[in-house]
Design goal:
Length: 398
């Protein structure tokens, strides 16, 4: 995902520096070239050899270190960098950068980098809320730096407050949002539905399905990484929702219908990946459990067809994509749905195919349009999501 990308990790003096080696490892695993810069104080918390072993590059601390190939090192690194993450960022380093002070390798290189710069403060709660620190952070925001809000929790000294640096996974997501993909969906609004709706029978029981929400979440994340403004309408799921999207939580099919209808006219691309329960119980007097035999009589009515509504209310230039999960006659039934729902695209798959369907990390789909069928091999749901957007962009270009 990050092959050919260079990420600079700028580490300052904070106990939170212990998290950065794992972040460096995660970045290397994704194919990035990782260059670590440290302040002299940071080296008191973690040995530079740790970073050198993980990244395969020299960890730079001293601006005047002569033990490298001849070049102006801070400038050469700045030219290569696709993204800079300053983490942990101490109050001292924040103050230096905000006020144009470049007196070591870290601050000098950061000043020379024209790429996106992300800063993750980590310090004592009271220090973080000091007006001078807050003023410096606001100044950095005005200069185009992105500031990651610290977590709330127990700090190194035992106090509780909001000065903790977020976990490595969160820091990684900020880097990926900036560097992982070309921003070919920038300026586009994308609506994605995901998860399994739940229809209550009584306060205890409900009707639902086996959808995990993983495919819908992968689609929402792919759109976010490609620069779109994403609204994710999510019913019950077992998956971790993506960051940096506007998530709207719903429970029933009617909840989802209303949430989708409220914003659908504003969207450029709509992908309905949720598995919506087709029926909802209508509770009557006869619905109560009979004590004699335990039988239960429930009247069912169809829920509103979200995909059909979207097709009937599609505006000019809008792309609507639905999912079709079948057990038999997959392509035939899916192509009928493409026409009857007035969709631009249907992603079809079969519950009978190993590696596809509910709860898996992979999928096998066939992308169907009015004039084309593209059968994709077994791949991760994340990769499948990107292939769907590749096809949508091609459709818009045509």
């Amino acid at each position: 995902m990050l092959k050919g990308k260079t990420v600079v990790l700028a580490v300052s003096g904070s106990i939170a520096a212990y998290k950065i080696p794992n972040l460096a490892r995660m970045l290397k695993k994704l194919g990035a070239e990782v260059q670590v810069l440290m302040t002299a104080n940071a080296a008191n918390f973690i040995n530079p050899i740790t970073f050198e072993s993980l990244t395969g590059t020299k960890c730079l601390i001293d601006t005047f270190d002569r033990n490298f190939e001849f070049s102006v090192e801070h400038v050469s690194i700045a030219k290569k960098a696709d993204c800079v993450l300053i983490a942990p960022a101490s109050a001292n380093v924040i103050g230096k950068i905000a006020n144009g002070i470049a007196d070591d390798m870290l601050t000098t290189t950061v000043m020379a980098c024209p790429c996106k710069k992300i800063i993750s403060p980590a310090m004592n709660h009271n220090m973080f809320h000091n007006p001078i620190v807050q003023d410096n952070l606001e100044k950095l925001r005005r200069f185009g730096y992105e500031v990651i809000a610290p977590d709330h929790g127990m700090l190194a000294n035992g106090d509780s407050g909001d000065g903790r640096m977020p976990e490595e996974r969160v820091l990684l997501e900020y880097i990926l949002r900036e560097t992982a993909c070309e921003k070919d969906l920038a300026g586009k609004k994308v609506l994605v539905t995901a998860g399994a709706t739940m229809e209550s029978i009584d306060p205890v029981r409900y009707i639902t399905n086996h959808s995990s929400g993983k495919m819908g979440f992968a689609i929402a994340r792919a759109a976010m990484l490609r620069g779109a403004e994403v609204t994710l309408v999510a019913a019950h799921t077992d998956a971790e929702p993506p960051m940096f999207v506007n998530k709207v939580d719903v429970k029933s099919a009617e909840d989802m219908f209303r949430a989708v209808a409220a914003v659908s006219s504003e969207q450029d691309i709509i992908i309905k990946a949720a598995a919506v329960a087709d029926y909802t119980p209508v509770v009557t007097a006869d619905s109560k459990i009979k004590k004699s035999d335990g039988d239960m009589k429930i009247e069912l009515k169809r829920t509103r067809d979200i995909l059909k509504y979207l097709g009937e209310n599609k505006r000019s230039g809008q792309i609507i994509c639905g999912f079709s999960m079948e057990t038999d006659n997959v392509l035939e039934n899916s192509r009928k749905k493409l026409v009857s729902k007035n969709c631009d695209m249907i992603c079809a798959n079969s519950l009978r195919t190993s590696g596809a369907g509910f709860g898996t990390e992979t999928n096998i789909i066939t992308i169907i349009t009015s004039d084309d069928e593209q059968e994709l091999p077994l791949m991760s749901k994340e990769e499948a999501a990107h292939r769907i957007f590749d096809r949508i962009l091609k459709m818009k270009a045509d």
